[in-house]
Amino acid sequence: MKRRVKWCVLALVMVLAAAALVSGCGEKEKKDQNTGKAREYSDPAKPVEVEAGQEFVIVLESNPSTGYEWEISGSPGENIKLAEKGFRPPDNTMPGAPGRQYWNFKAESPASSKVTFNYVRPWEKDVAPAKTEAFTINVK
């Protein structure tokens, strides 16, 4: 009798484990498999490749102590939506050390678009950006 109970418990555990595995198979990958967070991109030379429904983050080094910050130039595109933006302070506490600005996006629908960032002092009008970076976003 004890042996039969053990087999039933083992079979139940295996069925539950299989159900847990199968339930995740139909979902699109929305986060990085290794970290569980949205994948980050910081190199504009490499296209961002994502699937519809997936979240991703663009990160650029920034030093607000100089007065400069990154701004999105124009609209990011109909197929992606900006969910959040912010600033991550530097790891060290040295005055003037750069941090990182970030933009969390969600890919809405398949298409390609370009997101351009300008490194500017917001109060300086009619002045060319100190830097410009453009990311190509390919949503499948």
Query: Whole-Å distance between the termini?
Result: 55 Å
Low-pLDDT windows of residues: 7-30
Q: How would you describe the shape? A: globular
Major sheet characteristics: 4 strands, mixed
Helix content: 10-25%
Sequence of secondary-structure elements: HEEEEEEEE
Number of strands: 8
Structural class by SSE content:
alpha/beta
Architecture (CATH level 2) name? Sandwich
Biggest sheet, spatial arrangement of strands:
1-3-6-5
What's the average pLDDT? 82
Number of domains: 1
How many helices? The count is: 1
Kindly provide the name of the CATH class: Mainly Beta
**What portion of the residues fall into strands of 2 or more residues?**
35-45%
The radius of gyration is: 22 Å
Give an overview of the whole structure.
The chain is α/β, with parallel strands linked by helices. It has a single domain (28-139), classed as Immunoglobulin-like, CATH 2.60.40.2020. It contains one helix and eight strands, in the order H-E-E-E-E-E-E-E-E. The strands form two sheets. A four-stranded mixed β-sheet has the order 1-3-6-5, with no helix packed on it. A four-stranded mixed β-sheet has the order 2-8-7-4, with no helix packed on it. The longest helix is centred in the N-terminal third of the chain and has 22 residues, at 2-23.
Which secondary structure elements does this structure contain, and how are they paired or packed?
Layout: H1 2-23, E1 39-41, E2 48-50, E3 55-62, E4 69-73, E5 80-88, E6 99-107, E7 111-120, E8 131-139
Parallel strand pairs: 1-3, 2-8
Antiparallel strand pairs: 3-6, 4-7, 5-6, 7-8
